[in-house]
Specification:
- The complex is a heterodimer of chains A (about 240) and B (about 210).
- Chain A has about 240 residues and is α+β, with helices and mostly antiparallel strands.
- Chain A is about 55% helix and about 10% strand.
- Chain A has a five-stranded antiparallel β-sheet with strand order 2-1-5-4-3.
- In chain A, a hairpin with a 5-residue loop joins β4 and β5.
- In chain A, α1 packs parallel to α7, α9 crosses α10 and α10 crosses α11.
- Chain A starts with a helix and ends with a helix.
- Chain B is of the alpha+beta class.
- Helices cover about 35% and strands about 25% of the residues of chain B.
- In chain B, α4 runs parallel beside α7.
- The termini of chain B are close together.
- At the A-B interface, α7, α8 and α11 of A face β5 of B.
- Chain B: This is Acyl-homoserine-lactone synthase.
- Chain B: It catalyses: a fatty acyl-[ACP] + S-adenosyl-L-methionine = an N-acyl-L-homoserine lactone + S-methyl-5'-thioadenosine + holo-[ACP] + H(+).
- Chain B: GO terms for molecular function: N-acyl homoserine lactone synthase activity.
């Protein structure tokens, strides 16, 4: 049984070491595996580069044979963890998929044969700028031991996964150009985000409803949004409301 | 019983999710007269498009929706950060992978009518669901923005909140931000606010959540 507290702080220390290069992420994942007694670990991030439609970022400790097999078999099309994980909040327990279809059973069976590990846990990560990621750990432990490990590890891995994600964002210099809105445009958008109609926003801000509509329209254009709801969503994605405070 | 609905299984629950938006309109707009945006009898906001997790309480006998609540991670878009930062002093930001935010907690008004001083089964069920989900995700806390009405319910439900920041009047509603520490003990305390028989049913209901 690894000393969990010690393992956790050792990993956090490595993660927060700014001098380490981004190429060392797979090494880092290997360290996590050995400290926690795991089979493998993987990180898969989207929207983690400067361009809005940039390449996803992948780092794994899986064997190159499995990575090649996965690619040739086009498993990305059926892999339920990839398909569901990015919109999920709850950690995904792989065994929940076994019963769903023979195809998925085969997929996870082959993964185990290639040494990925019989049990898997995937933690979804959500960042503030539309960036999302999946952090996966796997093991060959029996079911009872693994359920116990999962309970003990889960909070640690929620935190480690987020540290790793922040580290990868920093290493990739993620800084997107943020549209500049006037304070009043922002305030109107914010009240719309809170569900207020133009009339109520006007009452709160002490201006006319027409003026509110005007601010919302100029904000919509600046954000390159299709309508006000879209503008609110974009403002949130760009983190504009928080910056304003 | 409780259903956990995320984006990946939302299609399987699409009718209940529509019912939830209608319930939210009845509760927050019609009854509490919050200043929320309602269209076609449904209260939907921008965070409903941000892949939240919903907990739905459904009547075992009738199959009807009786209550719902929404969760969002505090590391992504959420109400406290994006809509209500005024509640927090300047240097305070709630952003952690082990803190999620709950919002839009509501119970069907017809179902909610009960004798004096009793907490409705659906309220207890939803609060238990929040803690259970929190335990499953390894959370330390759930943060919530709520009003005086909810503050009374939390207190009566053995679910004390630690108020953070500064309670502020927003529109006509005194608004608070509070933290709930997630633990097995909290779950037991909340369940214990129900009479024994219902309490037992509540506990029976929970293991199903673990595999949902």
């Amino acid at each position: 049984m690894p000393d969990l507290e010690d393992a956790f702080y050792r990993v956090v220390d490595i993660l927060d070491d700014e001098t380490a290069s981004p190429e060392s992420v797979p090494d880092l994942l290997r360290t996590v595996c050995s400290l926690y007694g795991l089979n493998s670990a993987a990180y898969f991030g989207v929207n983690v580069s400067e361009q809005e439609q940039g390449e996803p970022y992948l780092a794994v400790t899986y064997s190159s044979e499995w990575v090649a097999h996965y690619r040739i078999q086009k498993f990305v099309d059926i892999d339920p963890v990839i398909r569901e994980g990015f919109s999920s909040m709850l950690p995904i327990v792989w065994s929940a998929y076994d019963a769903r279809s023979p195809r998925l059973k085969r997929f996870f069976g082959e993964a185990a044969e290639f040494g990925v590990g019989k049990r898997g846990l995937t933690i979804p990560i959500r960042g503030r700028s539309g960036d999302r990621a999946l952090f996966t750990i796997t093991s060959d432990q029996n079911l009872v031991d693994w359920s116990g490990s999962q309970r003990r590890f889960e909070r640690d891995f929620q935190m480690l996964a987020f540290h790793l994600h922040q580290r990868i964002l920093r290493a990739r210099g993620v800084e997107r150009p943020v549209p500049k809105l006037a304070p009043r445009e922002l305030e109107c958008l914010k009240w719309r985000a809170a569900g207020k109609c133009n009339w109520s926003t006007a009452q709160i801000m002490g201006i006319s409803a027409k003026t509110v509509a005007c601010y919302l329209e100029t904000a919509r254009v600046k954000l390159d949004a299709s309508n006000t709801t879209h503008a609110v969503a974009k403002a949130i994605t760009y983190n504009l409301f928080t910056i304003a405070h | 019983m409780l259903h956990i609905v995320e984006t990946h299984n939302r299609l399987s629950f699409s009718l209940l999710v529509e019912d939830m938006f209608a319930l939210r309109a009845r509760v927050f707009k019609d009854r509490l007269q919050w200043d929320v945006h309602v269209e076609d009898g449904k209260e939907i906001d921008v965070f409903d498009a941000a892949d939240p997790l919903y907990i739905l309480s459904v009547n075992d006998v009738t199959g009807r929706l009786e209550g719902s609540v929404r969760l969002l991670p505090t590391t992504g878009p959420n109400m406290l950060r994006d809509v209500f930062p005024v509640l927090l002093p300047d240097d305070l930001v709630v952003e952690s992978p082990i803190i999620w935010e709950s919002s839009r907690f509501c119970v069907e008004p017809d179902a909610a009518r009960l004798g004096e001083g009793r907490i409705h089964r659906v309220t207890t069920e939803l609060l238990c669901g929040l803690v259970e989900v929190g335990l499953r995700a390894g959370l330390s806390h759930i943060v919530s923005v709520y009003d005086a009405r909810m503050a009374r319910i939390f207190k009566a439900s053995a679910c004390p909140a630690e108020v953070i920041g500064t309670p502020t009047r927003i529109g006509r509603v005194m608004t608070y931000a509070g933290l709930f520490e997630i633990s097995e003990t909290l779950l037991q305390n909340i369940a214990a606010t129900q009479p024994t028989r219902e309490n037992a049913e509540l506990r029976d209901d929970l293991p199903a959540l673990r595999v949902a």
